[in-house]
Amino acid sequence: xxxxxxxxxxxxxxxxxxxxxxxxxxxxxxxxxxxxxxxxxxxxxxxxxxxxxxxxxxxxxxxxxxxxxxxxxxxxxxxxxxxxxxxxxxxxxxxxxxxxxxxxxxxxxxxxxxxxxxxxxxxxxxxxxxxxxxxxxxxxxxxxxxxxxxxxxxxxxxxxxxxxxxxxxxxxxxxxxxxxxxxxxxxxxxxxxxxxxxxxxxxxxxxxxxxxxxxxxxxxxxxxxxxxxxxxxxxxxxxxxxxxxxx
Amino acid sequence: xxxxxxxxxxxxxxxxxxxxxxxxxxxxxxxxxxxxxxxxxxxxxxxxxxxxxxxxxxxxxxxxxxxxxxxxxxxxxxxxxxxxxxxxxxxxxxxxxxxxxxxxxxxxxxxxxxxxxxxxxxxxxxxxxxxxxxxxxxxxxxxxxxxxxxxxxxxxxxxxxxxxxxxxxxxxxxxxxxxxxxxxxxxxxxxxxxxxxxxxxxxxxxxxxxxxxxxxxxxxxxxxxxxxxxxxxxxxxxxxxxxxx
Amino acid sequence: xxxxxxxxxxxxxxxxxxxxxxxxxxxxxxxxxxxxxxxxxxxxxxxxxxxxxxxxxxxxxxxxxxxxxxxxxxxxxxxxxxxxxxxxxxxxxxxxxxxxxxxxxxxxxxxxxxxxxxxxxxxxxxxxxxxxxxxxxxxxxxxxxxxxxxxxxxxxxxxxxxxxxxxxxxxxxxxxxxxxxxxxxxxxxxxxxxxxxxxxxxxxxxxxxxxxxxxxxxxxxxxxxxxxxxxxxxxxxxxxxxxxxxxxxxxxxxxxxxxxxxxxxxxxxxxxxxxxxxxxxxxxxxxxxxxxxxxxxxxxxxxxxxxxxxxxxxxxxxxxxxxxxxxxxxxxxxxxxxxxxxxxxxxxxxxxxxxxxxxxxxxxxxxxxxxxxxxxxxxxxxxxxxxxxxxxxxxxxxxxxxxxxxxxxxxxxxxxxxxxxxxxxxxxxxxxxxxxxxxxxxxxxxxxxxxxxxxxxxxxxxxxxxxxxxxxxxxxxxxxxxxxxxxxxxxxxxx
Lengths: 247, 245, 495
Description:
Chain B is of the alpha/beta class.
């Protein structure tokens, strides 16, 4: 099966290893993964800061990048970007042609875990991961896209993985895009509490399906570790990396 | 001097914002039946509704006493005796309370210092004062609501607001037969009675669910703030007694 | 205007103070947890919670679309029941109407049940200036009034005071001589306020839901102070916002099935009263004279705009109880009597973006959407927060310093070649900043913009290679491999 890939710009910029892991998993499941060179960023950082007009060219660039006559399926590795494309674009675009493109993209765009479980009908992807793992139920994947079960089904099917749910797993990590720069003190408090709930589980790995949250949590956990507030290394991973693991 | 707003000047910007040339004469009414949400009480037999009413009331710390009409007076006397605190009683001017021989039972109650029947002719001060010093207030509620353990208390000439408000303990008699599933069922009935435009509605319908309470200080629940500290429902099983009206 | 009560400090300064205040911080978190668990249990028990939310939303939207009709109907029916109806397009007009009533009666003492509308217009202050003693009778409001403090929550406004504080406050100001047990303090208030209820000339109250068809007003309370206020003072003044109206008595059921659960996690409040007109002939208690002050104060401007859904709000505070930001900064962080997610939407609508604080509020939100999910009347709160941000930019009220940054983002994100060029440039810069490491740590807190992040967390820098480059190479290699395999097979076939 040929799938077009939408990793989200953070994967491209900061975490190519997440993208690689996802490609490995998808290929193992019989997919060939392609990514249009022109795609960059969904632009939600602009939109969420109020720059709606500035978002339009960014959105159009994404919509133009994917040739829908060529791709039946688009897999997104980041829930929040996918949400921006299918749910936010219609609120900013003023142009019928592009609104129509969003309508065409919506039914063929799938979040990574949802795609594996509900399109490929697979929960056991052949991974093994002998660690205690907790999962951050990010707002965009869980609340906005309504994907709750798929990531947990996948994790629970991984050999050797012990899943431990954190308290208030569905609570925001405090990233919020430009929020974390505009109100850093509040953002820091929120992510600190998220980290505390992660630490409390006793897990050695925290994973998620939304890259921005992972970046935020990773940065905060690293700082807590330097400060001596955590006495162990807790790895922060995208769920794709766990599904690609053999350890 | 400030210019006063009139109905017209007040409505004009609202109409304008809505794109109305003038205030519409009529509006298609909201259709409640079209999308009535399912409720916990749906499909329950009346006996189950009464059970639910009692359970829910107990959850909000109401003392629930289910009895036959003939035993109501004794049940009330027992509530007062068990409470143990001597004090006076004010009860509503409702023939059913007399018919149940409640006044006679109160008279026999050793802790009841005085029992006063609400009397519209006695004047506001006398009645409010009586309630203010009373330990017990007894009313006959219009009915009950199963979903929330609530009683529907109409306040009028024969049953002042004070009886269910000022005394330390409120004892409400309610017919099991008058327990309805939801507040909506009672509102529909009251709406029908009060129609059109609520002309026949009493000045106050009070839905009461347990003692007055607060959690304003460190979220610690305290019962007995400005209204009663304790509430009892005497639920009359069987047909119950009905008001003359 | 008393909606924004702190014009001295910035939102960031207030937020920082709240975060430092350990008791307040902990109190809000405990309250959120308590309300969350209680609400959750009740919602799970409800067979059609989503249906209730939808119906409530539809009722409110129906009223909003026909608001002029329903305000008129409500006012006319109230008049027919002998209520004196006053109209106030602005807060100032409402204050004048209230002052007039007090003056006509020569009234100098009023008891008051909690009302957001009166806080919005700063009624207490104005009445006190006019020589009227106004006594707040809700426990929390009385604590705040006695302490001269502002609310930290719309439903439980004195959450930030400890029992010790409160006991001490009443010892100092009201002659309390008991301990710090909440029950004892509360019962002291019962004793202290009862004579006030019985002697006040005017009762001032708000209205949770106003019924157009019958002209009735309603009040939702637990403490019974609302009932006291609407039973004893001979004159009653009810403040009714135009966004409180429902069409018929029947609607009340739907709202009462949602409101107490959403507000405090209770199935029902101790009291819910439906008042229609003054006391009837022969009735001994209840007010002899009732006044409604129907207030707009800028609300009509929400109609027929993207903000119209805010007219559905029932002021339950469910959005505060779930908000990750409110959790850390409390109502005081926002500096508005309407705090939290609902406050972020409502405050700028009422005071405008001209106010720096109202504008700043709209950015104190992660857009996580938990508020919208918990809202009993389905207000898409987080979408409206973003709509405010968009309108701030559209009307040129944004911070001009940030504009070039966002313009640069626009350029970079809409052109793949430009993006790649910048990535090539960015990488060595990052290398210098990280001293060769993979992330920026606290030593980089001096860097503008980025430093606000790195003062509390590490920031991962641009990776040494792009994912897209890897994928292109990977796919090229795969294609090559396929070709070789195909070639191999062809050879086999040929043999």
